[in-house]
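JOB MANIFEST
job_type = single_chain_structure
chain_count = 1
residues = 321
[input]
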Amino acid sequence: MNVVASAGNPDVAMVYVVDFGGNLVECVEAVQPPTPRDEKWVLMISTLYGCPIQCQMCDAGGHYRGKLSKEEMAEQIRFLVSTRYPDGHVPSRQFKIQFARMGEPALNPHVLNLLEELPDRFSAPGLMPSLSTVAPHGRDDFFDRLIEVKNAHYPQGRFQLQFSIHTTDLEKRDQLIPVRKWDFTQIAAFGARYYRPGDRKLTLNFALAEEATLDAEVLKKYFDPDVFLIKITPLNPTYQARKMGLTSYIDCQKDHANSSLLDEIRKKGFRVILSIGEREENEIGSNCGQYVQKHLQSLGRLGDGYSYQVSEQNWISPSEE
């Protein structure tokens, strides 16, 4: 694995473009100010070479070239750990590894193999893996085995599972996530099998666009508030979102904590998390849906994202190969 480019602020987030034998992916390490690194440290690693899903708000879609191996995913983690903790011991109270930078993790069974081995591979008492998925159709075996892995290796709230939903409007959901996927009934039924007392609730994530709908009645119809929580995030500035004409419902400059939408969802019994990261993360390009390689290939630059200088070493854009 060779690092061919990087961007960021070491005190907030660093994005690394890495080369595995001619195939490029990205990995990220970040903190969430003002929380110090010894309290919470977050890694984001790639699971696929490209992504066949091509969600309308995500810059990491396209150029799909297959699955990363278990060792290639582990190597991203080892590299990121070495940048902060050369002795290999991660003392952070919460050491979160997100399988969420590039690629739909449910399409790669090697993710499960690595999850089984992570507690033995890394000295990290605060280890907490996090998997984010659109719940693609036909991956029932993956999710069944995920329950087994979670119960065996990450009990009592040490694993986080997130379903990327983005809207309760089914037609719009199909536009935003243009693949066959589980419907709400299937997600709800899986949640009932997955959840055990002491587990973290499953997250239904909405990177909410103005053009999308989030209906509290629909949430209550399908999902149990004792099993699921609702997370609402801004639609981060990406080239793909701009191309598709999507704008964020969440204005990061305003206080949405007591909005009527959030109140309606809370009244249905759901815990609601409004997750707004550091603005600097958008400028770095480290937030969800952002992808530095897309930025390096683009001519019409965004005004509210990817503004950090990218340090390039032996960089060859995929479009130039």
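[summary]
The CA atoms of residues 209 and 228 lie 21 Å apart.
The mean pLDDT is 92.
exit_status = 0
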